[in-house]
Specification:
The chain is of the alpha+beta class and 213 residues long. The chain starts with a strand and ends with a helix. It is built from three helices and 17 strands. The protein is globular, with a radius of gyration of 18 Å.
Length: 213
């Protein structure tokens, strides 16, 4: 990817030459009393994404490589806290709000900042236009699920952190019927979601992240 800043009549313009991406993540350092960084996400088609779990993880890793202190990230109207140990990054995600779909439909609608339609054991998948991501979930065992996601404004994606959180949370509440730490398998790799508290905690092993590059 190449980037270039050009100035025209006093306006500084950032040009990005990269066609093969899912999301552009814009980070602005604020260092206010409430948060350290504000993140804005732009999808491949130019639409605005309201949440991106993987971008939160990568931003956290970059932050912790520079300084050893917790990170407070503002996304939209919420502020999320990210912590690091020697082995992992833990991001306190927003609370998941969800509801079952209309009668005779086989999906659950969930929101964690962005909208997700979650299909467990799908007989059919509605592939329409709308302000939501679509995920198909396969239950492997009590603590492991596989999640395949199509993101709004992006298309088929190998990994989606917000979908992993929503799927794990709804799975624990509606199918497992108890709190648990869930391993979410995706084509791009595994994500761990702690669903034992009031909100999901997105966990990435630092060793696994370093092996991705």
């Amino acid at each position: 990817m190449t980037t270039e800043i050009k100035t025209y009549r006093g306006n500084k313009l950032l040009f990005i030459n990269q066609l093969d991406f899912d999301t552009i993540c814009i980070a602005t350092k604020k260092h206010t009393k409430e948060y350290d960084i504000e993140l804005i996400f732009i999808n491949k088609d130019g639409s605005r994404a309201k949440m991106c779990g993987n971008a939160l993880v990568q931003t956290s890793l970059d932050w912790f490589n520079l300084r050893n202190e917790p990170l407070r990230i503002k996304v939209g109207n919420v502020i999320l806290r990210s912590l690091q140990t020697q082995e992992e990054i833990r991001i306190e995600m927003p609370k998941v709000k969800y509801e079952k779909a209309y009668e005779n439909e086989n999906y659950i609608t969930a929101n964690i900042g962005n909208n997700h339609n979650l299909y467990f054991y799908p007989k059919k998948v509605y592939d329409g236009e709308g302000d939501y991501n679509i995920s198909i979930i396969e239950i492997i065992n009590d603590t492991t699920i596989f999640v395949d996601t199509w993101e709004r404004g992006v298309g088929k994606t190998e990994s989606c952190g917000s979908a992993a959180c929503c799927a794990a949370w709804v799975y624990c509440k509606e199918y497992l019927k108890k709190d648990a730490i869930i391993t979410v398998k995706q084509t791009g790799g595994d994500i761990i979601v702690d669903c034992t508290g009031e909100f999901p905690i997105l966990i990435h092993k630092i060793e696994d992240m370093n092996n991705d590059y």
